[in-house]
Design brief:
By secondary structure, the chain is an alpha+beta fold. It is built from 12 helices and 26 strands. The strands form 3 sheets. Strands 4-3-2-1-6-7-8-9-5 form a 9-stranded antiparallel β-sheet. A 9-stranded antiparallel β-sheet has the order 13-12-11-10-15-16-17-18-14.
């Protein structure tokens, strides 16, 4: 009887313990996690609710606020803000977790908090004010000592929070004077004392209109527009002199106009470049009173050369548009033909010992279409036209489907390389001798 009573008692005890474990460990877990999260969060505020921020550091006071969802700098100068920098800053502020509480911290002077290295004030959506002081970093540099209006103790916070707010006015303002989607650019116009360059895009192709009419180099133009889109100011003249001639901006020494879109929806942005001071150039966007400075390495990239933007290929025709390719070099003639092929295959017509065999396109055509100029003379001198090509080392004849022929003449190799000229054009190209050797050597092994 006693044994049964003991068993019942122990059973009841175990039931109580099981119930306690269930309600504490499982039912109470969510509540404890919420309480722990709230206790270790620096501020109970969401990033979208932060409406304004004030930062004081190194004697500089910066005030920023949201206007229609966009950050604007209000003081010490009213100007556009770097949206990414401000969003990162406020995101870190709202998401920051307290690393450690120092309940018995003693004199806060030792933590660099009197005065603080960085003082921050910000407002929530309903006007509530929060403050945060950041001081020295701990011995490992992973955390920073802090004092916040949300906690009575001295705190240790992740050091990335310090890095987020250790920003100057220049760091927080929008340093990109031009906003550009390079894929939508339809026209480029650059002008200085020696060059007036105009390039227009039609479909996916670029064409140089001035100073000469020629095809544009899509890759070269894309690279150039990337430099323009990535342009950032190195400094700002917040209170410029009314006489812009002091900066070489009236008239401007150089100007670059970028047009995006076409017709009535076209948008023009014009950068004016002025004089150089030390290692920077003064600059201004047309229509804006602001004057800024560009590092010389940036400003000089905005000054394009005709060579960079023009097509540097020697042969621009496509193989599918041809029916015959003839190459004369070193006393030998190589002829490739597809006009008589029912399957549109290229076959060797000459030399006779290879006649009728399939021609390897990657041997006779790929090296030819990949020829690219190291220099372009436009127009060339009389010597280039009369003497260099009087007895060419290589003569290439390209015959299209309409039986129209274009000749490509290559001079004998010289110290500068090989000069190349196409019939019907005054332009002379200079290419490396190795490019020519790669092309001519492949002709000997052109048949399958």
């Amino acid at each position: 009887m006693i044994k049964w009573r003991s068993l019942l008692i122990w059973t009841a005890v175990l039931a109580v313990l099981a119930g306690f474990v269930y309600f504490y460990e499982f039912k109470g877990e969510a509540g404890r996690k919420s309480a722990a999260s709230k206790a270790t969060h620096l501020f109970d505020v969401k990033e979208p609710d932060i409406s304004s921020v004030m930062i004081q550091r190194n004697g500089e006071k910066i005030e920023v606020g949201r206007q229609n969802g966009q950050w604007k700098i209000g003081s010490p100068v009213a100007t556009e803000a770097d949206q990414q920098a401000l969003n990162d800053m406020t995101q870190n502020l709202s998401a920051s977790i307290v690393t450690r509480y120092l309940s018995n911290a003693g004199n806060i002077t030792q933590y660099g908090l009197t005065p603080p290295k960085i003082h921050i004030e910000f407002r929530g959506a309903h006007g509530e004010t929060y403050t945060l002081d950041l001081g020295e970093k701990d011995y490992a540099g992973n955390n920073v000592y802090a004092k916040a209006s949300s906690h009575s103790e001295i705190l240790l916070l992740p050091s990335y929070l310090y890095s987020s707010f250790d920003k100057s006015l220049l760091d927080l303002r929008n340093r990109k004077p031009i906003s550009l989607d390079t894929e939508k650019v339809s026209k480029i116009e650059f002008e200085d004392k020696t060059l007036h360059l105009v390039a227009e895009k039609s479909g996916s192709d670029w064409r140089i209109l001035q100073p000469v009419g020629t095809a544009g180099d899509s890759m070269g133009i894309s690279s150039y527009l990337g430099d323009v889109a990535g342009m950032e100011a190195a400094a700002f003249v917040d209170h410029p002199d009314a006489d812009l001639s002091h900066y070489g901006l009236k008239p401007a020494a150089e100007s670059l106009t970028i047009t995006t879109g076409e017709g009535k929806t076209a948008n023009r942005q014009k950068v004016l470049l002025g004089t150089k001071q030390d290692d920077r150039y003064y600059a201004q966007m047309e229509g804006s009173p602001a004057v800024f400075q560009l590092a010389s390495t940036v400003a000089e990239k905005l000054s394009p050369t005709l060579f960079k933007l023009r097509d540097k290929r020697i042969v621009t025709m496509k193989l599918d548009d041809l029916k015959k390719v003839t190459v004369q070099t070193g006393g030998a003639t190589y002829e490739f033909d597809k006009s008589g092929s029912k399957e549109s295959r290229w076959v060797v017509a000459q030399p006779k010992n290879l006649a009728g065999k399939d021609a390897r396109e990657w041997k006779f055509w790929f090296p030819l279409e990949s020829l690219s100029a190291d220099e372009i003379v436009d127009p060339p001198g009389s010597q280039s036209k009369s003497q260099l090509f009087a007895n060419p080392a290589v003569r290439i004849t390209l015959t299209d489907q309409a039986s129209k022929e274009i000749e490509v003449l290559m001079s004998k190799p010289g110290k500068e390389g090989v000069w190349v000229k196409s019939s019907g054009a005054n332009t002379v190209f200079r290419i490396g001798q190795k490019q020519v050797e790669d092309f001519t050597s492949g002709l000997k092994d052109v048949a399958d």
